[in-house]
Design goal:
eight-stranded antiparallel sheet; 17 strands; Dna Ligase, domain 1; four-stranded antiparallel sheet; 32% helix; 3 domains; D-amino Acid Aminotransferase, Chain A, domain 1; 14 helices; alpha+beta; 433 residues
């Protein structure tokens, strides 16, 4: 019997990963809304998007067996809003918002794992002075954002004021529609008071960044993997994700225990999750960065290359009320997702052709390329970028170890020509290979 799975924001890359799941399971994947209809790149019409998705489900003549999504807000909120009234397996909406509202999430984290939480404070958008009790350097970000959008590092008062100016201008794009969802909940006074468009200020955490992936079923959290997140030297921008993590076993056990405690506290259930941390290998210090009430689609191909099946399988099984399995038996010992970036704006005059991409993917087994930059646009027009760089392409590779992954990445990138013009008319693509 066919299992109808509706996917919010189903794109070509995720469809390809889903279709690579074990063939003995008769899934049919149906796009519920496309990415433009969801509108993450603009101010979201949350009531309109919800009504559009609900109408399509109601008009479907077959069974609706699951509704899933791999994206941040509004998809993360749409899933429980659509599932709850249909009796489908999903996380409680309040628990999702408790994770995604950065200030509320910090309050919950501090209540149960204070040793892993940096000092923080909530501030209104009209704030121009760093909160007392916090020391530079700090990070300032809206209480609702994603992909490091509008997240700024400040080392002095001038940097703090400049960051608040940028956040003040952009926080409403997501914050206004996020407030619409918050209004459906009974909120703690301190969270209701700051709303969906305030900002969070927190002291900088240091060390190696990594992500714990897991799921919750019947109130019991399970961790199934840890992924390392490497940054370009001297920046906060990601260079690559690498699986499995090289973190020492004892640190991995601590990360698992911290994750289980905080996930139980926030009330997530019947959902996948990922939690980002910093781990200082010298002191052993661990600091939690953020909780995401969904698995990471960026890691899907990494699990596929190493363990033989992507983490999308776990998301599916949980959404169908089944016990997940992440089968072992991939073709590679290590896998990595590399981010090819440029650290200044420019006009994209040309991107790799389909033939270029096909040639690049043939450089090593399992290699996959996703072009992010768009010909005829400025890089600053790309959605979902961090505050300091622009993505040109994603490159997935597998290998015997990290060294072979890096060599295969460089061989692949050598076959990906970009032409990017600076404002003075010079071609300075600025790629890191």
């Amino acid at each position: 019997m066919t299992t109808n799975v509706f996917v919010l924001g189903l794109d070509d890359q995720n469809r390809e990963v889903l279709l690579s799941l074990p063939a003995d399971r008769d899934y049919r994947f149906l796009q519920l809304l496309d990415l433009d209809e969801i509108g993450q790149h603009r101010e979201v019409d949350m009531p309109g998007v919800l009504a559009l998705a609900a109408g399509r489900l109601n008009s479907f003549e077959g069974t609706v067996d699951a509704v899933i999504g791999f994206w941040d807000f509004p998809v993360s909120s749409l899933v429980p809003l659509l599932c709850q009234e249909r009796g489908l397996s999903c996380a409680p909406l309040e628990a999702v918002i408790r994770c995604e509202h950065k200030y509320w999430s910090r309050l919950e984290q501090r209540a149960v794992i204070p040793e892993a939480v940096p000092r923080f404070a909530e501030v209104g958008l009209d704030t121009t002075v760093k909160p007392e009790g916090l020391s530079y350097p700090v990070w300032i970000k809206p209480v609702k954002s994603f992909s490091s959008e509008l997240a700024f590092r400040a080392v002095d008062d001038a940097g703090f004021r400049a960051a608040m100016d940028r956040i003040r201008a952009g926080a409403g794009r997501l914050g206004t529609s996020f407030q619409w969802v918050m209004d459906r909940l009974r909120l703690p006074p301190e969270v209701a008071g700051c709303g969906g468009t305030a900002a969070l200020v927190e002291e900088e955490a240091t060390g190696d960044q990594l992500t714990v992936e897991g799921y919750v079923r019947d109130g019991v959290p399970h961790v199934y993997g840890i992924v390392d997140s490497h940054r370009y030297p001297g920046t906060s921008s990601f260079l690559r994700y690498e699986y499995p993590s090289t973190v020492p076993e004892a640190a991995g056990e601590r990360l698992t225990a911290l994750s289980e405690r905080v996930i139980s506290r926030v009330g997530l259930d019947n959902v996948t999750f990922n939690i980002e941390y910093f781990h200082d290998p010298r002191s052993g210090d661990i600091r939690l960065l953020e909780i995401n009430p969904r698995h990471s689609q960026s890691h899907a191909r990494l699990f596929e290359l190493v363990r033989g099946v992507s983490n999308h399988e776990i998301c599916l099984r949980v959404a169908l009320g089944q016990e997940p399995e992440l089968e072992r038996g991939g073709e590679h010992a290590v896998a990595a997702k590399w981010f090819l970036r440029r650290f200044r704006d420019g006009f994209v005059a040309a991107v790799p052709t389909e033939e270029d991409v096909a040639r690049a993917e043939k450089t090593a087994p399992g290699t996959k390329v996703e072009i992010v930059a768009r010909q005829g646009q400025r890089l600053s027009e790309l959605p979902f970028q961090d505050s300091y760089s622009f993505e040109l392409a994603h490159v997935f590779v597998g290998g015997r170890d990290g060294v072979e992954c890096e060599r295969r990445y460089r061989d692949c990138v050598a076959e990906l020509p970009f032409t990017i013009w600076d404002d003075d008319g010079e071609d300075r693509s600025g790629r890191t290979r």
